[in-house]
Amino acid sequence: MKKAGILNRHLSGALAELGHGDGVLVCDAGMPIPVGPRVVDLAFRAGVPSFAEVVEGLLAELVVEGATAAAEVRDANPGAAELLDGHFGEGDLEFVSHERLKELSAGARLVVRTGEARPYANVLLRCGVFF
Hints:
The chain is of the alpha/beta class.
């Protein structure tokens, strides 16, 4: 049994299958889930687990070279915008329309659904490589 890191066996296994350039959509409970990508649904109750908890956990285990979020997050959910700004430097975080983010999500390899109940708490992570 693992004693640290992501303990959810479905999520841990899905992360181990990712490679350079693969997309991981971390989304709130209301984001439409595209057909195609593997889905690990962590949502339990409204707000549990939170977007921040899941993003923090994933960033501790993944090499991420960039991310894309909806521009609408800035006005509608400043807390999520601040979280993303705090993790990604200038040029590593791209903002697009929410509609465009939904289109890009169809190309994700993995979708991790949180219980987040605040708007636009969604980010498409692009996996990097550790060497």
